[in-house]
Amino acid sequence: MWLNGRPVLVVRDGDKFYGMDAVCAHMGCAILSEVHGTTAVCPAHGAKYDVKTGQMIEPPQVKPDVPCEQEEIRVPLRTYKVSVGSDGLLDVE
């Protein structure tokens, strides 16, 4: 999903939803799409993030063969409040 021009990852954990910026903080070069529970994994360098807090819980493994073109993003990644609206759609704040 996109919010204000930024990709946002939304994850369901039981009956709760969590939202977080979906761009890896290491060089900002990868979209976070692989999720295990509430942990998002960077496909480029393997950094892991807690979707609930935006904190990096495992640092990246630098791979010189995977180019990155953007500058580094600060952690924690921005998180968003996510709720189910009366229409059944997700509301992201």
UniProtKB/TrEMBL annotation:
Name of the protein: Ferredoxin
UniProt keyword annotations, A-Z: 2Fe-2S, Iron, Iron-sulfur, Metal-binding
Keyword Electron transport in annotation: no
Residues in Rieske domain copies: 1-77
Gene3D superfamilies (UniProt xref): Rieske [2Fe-2S] iron-sulphur domain
GO molecular function ontology, one term from the record: 2 iron, 2 sulfur cluster binding
Organism of provenance: Conexivisphaera calida
Pfam families registered for this protein in UniProt: Rieske
UniProt cross-references to CDD domains, sorted A to Z: Rieske (cd03467)
SUPFAM superfamilies cross-referenced by the UniProt entry: ISP domain
